[in-house]
Specification:
TIM Barrel, eight-stranded parallel barrel, binds D-xylulose, binds cobalt (II) ion
Length: about 425
């Protein structure tokens, strides 16, 4: 049985095509820098937005039914799994990402919930074997249920902490069972609404305790993948502890977690933190924490996480420049943590959104490869810092100077010469390369 009988397998038709449900730029097996596009991009489907989210917002109910013709929640979860694999196969998507609660509904007790997860994950494993589709990463939803109103690891209640730990244990087991390459922690409600009722130090230390227990347990059951922190500065909490990449990296180093954890950078979270997507990727890359990406885009006029499908080619090009400069993904990939707008209320819209997002990143990849091959951008930066390769600059870098020797140099030097940053030249340059 098909869930989307009117949607064919999405073909690659190239630039001249006028078919909206075809790839114009994403040619999965075409080589870019000697590697097939599908291996560069490692596209993943987000189970929650794609298979579960029905378009509810705080003013209205859902606009697209995602019960998959079933009334019983478990039957619906099993049908959803079939529908997910049909969708991924039709789009040519090789990976998916999931929260525990996306794949199976919570039961009356933890034991019942876990038994439900076993049933659905058996089915997912079968579907994976039949199709070759894999898990990019798994995670635990530690924010949806009312018990997590004060956070999970950062909750004021040790009982909630214990429940969260149990949920993480099971979600790691599911990720290992399904062969997932990563496990994500997004600090859903790990933050605060007001400092008036918050023990900041204990909450932070408890988050580190949960991460450490998760790492140790996962390694003990054979998990070989990476953990990812997904920074976000706010929403749902007024302040979230994993504010941005720099904050999360410093937290990981403080708690000795730097060997097992990397960043999962989400575009719309970056912009909420007052950074560009590229900035967050650059920080992660230069600090040795580049891992995975949640691909989406926000609306510059709105101050919340709109999770729109990415269609901005400049952003995608700059992001892919960072990915290529990092040497590409290893266990990570591009997860579309994105949802269609509430009024885009058909499954055709959903397919269209994925085609748009995948084509945008395919263009971004092609453009980033052109920028690197051209070399003028890199050459400009190298030249800009040339002073640090000889003379006093080389001495500074080599640690051979101190304030007194630099003062002596400055006194001898006379006037200081400066150079232009040539930003407008560079902005024009990248346009001439990308759109030639
Ligand atoms: C929320 C968000 C999450 C994480 C996984 O803003 O991005 O969906 O990606 O928990
Ligand atoms: Co995300």
């Amino acid at each position: 049985m098909q869930y989307f009988p009117n949607i064919p397998k999405i073909p690659y038709e190239g630039k001249p095509s006028k078919n909206p449900l075809a790839f114009h730029f994403y040619d999965a097996d075409a080589l870019v820098c000697g590697k097939p596009m599908r291996e560069h991009l490692r596209f993943a489907m987000s189970y929650w937005h794609t298979m579960c989210a029905e378009g509810t917002d705080m003013f209205g109910v859902g606009t697209l039914d995602k019960t998959y013709r079933q009334t019983d929640p478990m039957q619906s979860a099993l049908a959803k799994a079939d529908a997910a694999f049909e969708l991924m196969q039709k789009l040519g998507i090789d990976f998916y990402c999931f929260h525990d609660r996306d794949i199976a509904p919570e039961g009356a007790t933890l034991a019942e919930t876990n038994a439900r997860l076993d049933i659905v994950s058996d089915k997912l494993l079968e579907l994976q074997k039949a199709t070759g589709i894999k898990v990019l990463w798994g995670t635990a939803n530690l924010f949806g249920h009312p018990r997590y109103q004060n956070g999970a690891a950062s909750s004021c209640s040790p009982e909630v902490f214990a429940f969260a730990a149990a949920q993480v244990k099971k979600a790691i087991e599911l990720t290992v069972k399904l062969g997932g390459g990563g496990f994500v922690f997004w600090g859903g409600r790990e933050g605060y609404e007001t400092l008036l009722n918050t023990n900041y130090a204990l909450e932070q230390a408890n988050i580190a305790r949960l991460f450490t227990m998760a790492r140790d347990y996962a390694r003990s059951i054979g998990f070989k993948g990476l953990f990812y922190i997904e920074p976000k500065p706010k929403e749902p909490m007024k302040h979230q502890y994993d504010y941005d990449a720099a904050t999360a990296i410093s937290f990981l180093r403080k708690h000795g977690l730097q060997d097992d954890f990397r960043m999962n950078i989400e575009a719309n979270h970056a912009t909420l933190a007052g950074h560009t997507f590229q900035h967050e990727l650059r920080v992660a890359r230069e600090e040795g924490f580049f891992g995975s990406i949640d691909a989406n885009i926000g609306d510059p006029l709105l101050g919340w996480d709109t999770d729109q499908f990415p269609t901005n080619v400049y952003d995608a090009a700059m992001a892919m420049l960072e990915v290529l400069s990092a040497g590409g993904f290893t266990t990570g990939g591009l997860n579309f943590d994105a949802k269609t707008r509430r009024a885009s209320n058909t499954f055709e819209d959903l397919f269209q959104a994925y085609v748009a997002g995948m084509d945008t990143f395919a263009l971004g990849l092609r453009m980033a490869a052109k920028l690197l091959a051209d070399g003028r951008l890199d050459a400009f930066v190298t030249e800009r810092y040339a002073g640090y390769r000889t003379g006093i600059g080389a001495d500074i870098v080599a640690g051979k100077t101190d304030l007194a020797s630099l003062e002596a140099f400055a006194l001898r030097m006379g006037d200081v010469s400066t150079t232009s940053g040539r930003q407008e030249y560079l902005e024009h340059l990248i346009n001439t390369i990308m759109f030639e």
